[in-house]
């Protein structure tokens, strides 16, 4: 799992630069909020902005009792363990009130040999989850 996470993280700079972020021509509070999210546990790694983020419905994630993987979420259609290092506290209050209590994840697809997997590098989960 650790190798899969590291392989996915190595691809982040290319993936984030490969496509322009959603709303590049608009300057909204919501756009700025998504863009401001970073992971301090990974040297301030940018979560890439809203174009790479995914909102999850309440039935697409749940908390676990495992401190190394405190959440499990359905990301890109795959149930994925979320490592503790990927869980971040949001920077500021999300401007879109309708989405404030929804879980959010940023992920990439990773390949290790013949295995394909989802790597989550940032995740925000409601405290009452």
Task: Write structural notes for this entry.
The structure is a single chain. The protein has 129 residues and is of the alpha+beta class. The protein has one domain (2-18, 45-124). It is built from three helices and eight strands; from the N terminus they run H-H-H-E-E-E-E-E-E-E-E. Strands 3-7-8 form a three-stranded antiparallel beta sheet. A three-stranded antiparallel beta sheet has the order 4-5-6, with no helix packed on it. The longest helix has 9 residues, at 2-10.
Question: What's the layout of helices and strands?
Answer:
Blueprint lengths: L1 H9 L1 H7 L10 H8 L1 E2 L5 E2 L6 E4 L4 E3 L7 E5 L2 E5 L20 E10 L2 E10 L5
Antiparallel strand pairs: 1-2, 3-7, 4-5, 5-6, 7-8
Task: Give descriptors for this structure.
globular, 19% helix, single chain, three-stranded antiparallel beta sheet, 129 residues, alpha+beta, 3 helices
Helix content: 10-25%
Structural class: alpha+beta
Q: How many strand units?
A: 8
Runs in which pLDDT lies below 50 for 5 or more consecutive residues are: 17-23
- SSE sequence, one letter per element: HHHEEEEEEEE
Tell me, briefly, the overall form. globular
Number of helices: 3
């Amino acid at each position: 799992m650790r190798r899969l996470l590291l392989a996915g993280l190595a691809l982040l700079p290319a993936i984030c630069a490969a496509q322009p972020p959603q709303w590049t021509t608009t300057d909204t509070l919501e756009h700025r909020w998504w863009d401001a999210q970073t992971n301090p546990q990974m040297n301030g790694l940018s979560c890439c902005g809203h174009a790479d983020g995914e909102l999850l419905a309440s039935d697409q994630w749940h908390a676990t009792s495992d401190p190394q993987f405190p959440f499990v979420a359905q990301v890109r259609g795959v149930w994925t363990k979320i490592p503790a290092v990927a869980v971040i506290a949001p920077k500021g209050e999300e401007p879109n009130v309708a989405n404030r209590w929804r879980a959010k994840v940023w992920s990439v697809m990773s390949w290790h040999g013949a295995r394909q997997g989802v790597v989550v590098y940032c995740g925000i989960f409601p405290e009452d989850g």
